[in-house]
Design a protein that fits this description.
352 residues, mainly beta, 26-stranded parallel beta sheet, 49% strand
Length: 352
């Protein structure tokens, strides 16, 4: 199906393997509900469904979601274990907007409670939510059934806040959370991966990029672009492995730049700049492993703490650290090929 003009009142896609395209210049609108709803029925117990959406024009709702993708519905008298999967591609001139830009969720009903929805996003255009969240998809049953398999924001692409379960997020454009987290990985994201070559920013108390899996603190993040928080939140929290490549910048103005809390381990490899522009710390956690390569800089404010390890610190510094280093009760520090402009202190400390 191709939408090439102006369609009002929204549209519900119920056909399996039936690609839908909103052409450049076309508009799919709804003033009283979701603009585009995907709800492909299952006809049997084993019935995986697929959807392919290409948005080169505008999809918008004043009161609902831009696009909602549901697992079903399923009315066959048995559980739906296969649900719906597919792709949503937004072209360079395309836009999706609503209270939430895109939402993925299980269909209501007893037989849909285990049904999966797995969608991949490839965005060259704009995805926004008037409520702040552009991409939403939370798996409340802890089965990893509701997720964005991949989220790719291309050069020139713009996405508002992402609050979802996802596999891999790759950003070469801009992700702006405003006062919300720009990227909030759902609690079930044990292995969430973020690769940033663009800009990820937020301006509030919420951390810019955070993994809500507060028990296991898992996930990996690689940055060669800019991740910043201009409000009081951290730039990154809840990710266990962070690599800031040469040319990459990670900064915050109020809170810690990278915060791990009192549980789990944190490994940071830095070849770029990690800097606190306010009074907070640059890196904090319990069990902290930091490699600061030649050319790398880890900066705290004047007289501030660059690295705070509450329990233990392993530090190999070949670059520059501006600020005090609190190494906890045990640790290993080698700065023979680098510079620490501050005090090195062993003993009990506290972290964010």
């Amino acid at each position: 199906m191709t939408c090439s003009g102006t369609t009002t009142g929204g549209y519900v896609l119920t056909s399996d393997q039936s690609p839908l395209t909103v052409s450049a210049g076309a508009s799919l609108q709804n003033s009283a509900g979701d603009a585009l709803t995907v709800a492909i029925p299952a006809n049997a117990f084993y019935d995986p469904r697929t959807v392919t959406l290409t948005i080169n024009g505008s999809v918008s709702s004043a009161t609902g979601n831009g696009i909602s993708v549901y697992s079903g519905p399923f009315d066959g008298g048995d559980y739906d274990f296969y649900g719906t999967s597919g792709t949503i591609t937004v072209g360079a001139g395309g836009s999706i907007s609503g209270v939430t830009g895109i939402t993925i969720a299980q269909s209501p009903g007893y037989f849909s409670q285990n049904a999966p929805v797995h969608i991949s996003i490839d965005n060259f255009g704009t995805i926004t939510g008037t409520g702040g969240v552009a991409l939403s998809g939370v798996d409340s049953l802890f089965y990893n059934n509701i997720s964005y398999s991949t989220i790719t924001n291309e050069i020139g692409g713009s996405i508002g806040a992402i609050d979802a379960n996802f596999g891999t997020l790759s950003n070469s454009g801009t992700i702006d959370g405003g006062t919300l987290s720009a990227v909030r990985a759902d609690f079930n994201n044990y292995y969430a991966t973020v690769n940033n070559a663009g800009t990820i920013t937020a301006s509030g108390a919420a951390d810019t990029v955070t993994n809500a899996n507060a028990t296991y603190y898992s996930g990996a993040l690689t940055n060669s672009g800019t991740i910043t928080n201009t409000g009081t939140g951290a730039a990154i929290s809840g990710f266990a492995i962070i690599t800031n490549q040469a040319g990459g910048t990670i900064s915050a103005s109020g809170s810690d730049v990278i915060a791990q809390g009192l549980a789990g381990a944190l490994t940071v490899t830095n070849g770029g700049t990690i800097g606190n522009l306010g009074a907070g710390q640059a890196i904090s956690g319990a069990y902290v492993n930091v490699t600061n390569n030649a050319g790398g800089a880890i900066n705290a404010g004047s007289g501030g703490v660059a690295i705070n390890a509450a329990s233990s610190l392993t530090l190999v510094n070949m670059g520059t650290i501006n600020g005090n280093v609190l190494a906890g009760n045990a640790g290993y520090v080698d700065s023979s090929q680098g510079t620490i402009n501050g005090n090195l202190v062993f003993g009990a400390t506290t972290t964010r």
